[in-house]
Amino acid sequence: MFLGAQGTLGVVTKAAITVKTLYKTAKVFFVSFDNLTTMAEAVRRFLRLEVTEEVFVANAHYLSLFLAKKWPDEFKQLKEKCAPWTLVMVARGEEEEVELKALDLEDVVSSLNLKIENDLPDLTDAGERILSEISYPMGSLNQNRYKGGWNPIFCYTTMGNLSSFYKLITTAAKKYKYPSGDIGFLMLPLNHGATFYFEPSFYRDLKDGEESQSVEKLFLEVSSRLIHEGAFFDRPYPLWAKKVYAHASYYHSKVKEIKKVIDPNNIMNPGKLAFE
To answer: Which of 101, 137, 180, 184 makes a 20 to 30 Å CA pair with 204?
Structure first.
C-alpha cells in the first residue's frame, strides 16, 4: 500500500533507522561480461563472500548514461568502449580490510577466468563517479539526457529469469524497430542473488510524436508480457495496476480491504489504482 502511491496515509510515529559507519576507505571494482549467464554465476559467487556494500549490474547504454559528464561526446565514447554488461561492486572499511576484500574478489574472478578492474576504458575516475552517484544520485536527470523521455519498468524477478526476460524485451523491441542497443538495463541483486531488481528502460524524443507512440506501445507490451511471465511489480502504477492485480486476485482483495479501512471516503487517488 505504501509503495502504491496512495498519497498521505497517516502520521508516522515510529521509524527504524540504520546507522552506518563512515568508512575511511571505499573502493570500486568493475567486472565486464559478454552475456548474462556468466554474469549471474559471478554475482552468485561474489555475494557469497559478503565483502561488498553496493552491487549492481548495468549494460553499456545505461552505464554510459549513468557516468558521462561531458555530453554527448563522453557518453558516445563510453558506450563504444564499455563491455555489453558490467558488474559494479563497492567495498568499504578500513584500508587494510578493503585490501583483503579485494583479494577475496580476485580469487573469484580468477576462478571464472575474468578480470577485475578499478576503472573503465578511458575513464580513470569511473570509481569516483560511482561513489559520487551513490552519495548524490542524479537518477532520471542522467537518463533523460539521451532523448528527453525516459520510460523505465520497475520490477523484480529471479536470477533464472534474467536471460529469458532479456530475450523477451529485445524481441519486442525488434518488432517495434527499436534499437536493442538503445535499451537500458539496470539490475540489483537481492537475497544473495536469488532475486534481482530488474529495470529495463526505453528512451524517446518527446518532440517526435510518432516515435513517442511507438515507444509507448513497446513499453506497454513489454510490461504486459513481464507481468504474464511472473515478474513482480511492487509499485503497480495506473498503467500496470489492472494487469498486476488480475494475476493476484487474493492480494488485490486484501489490498482493497485495507484501502477501505485507511481511506473510507476514497479521497486518495480515486479511480486511478484499480481499487474500484
So the answer is: 137
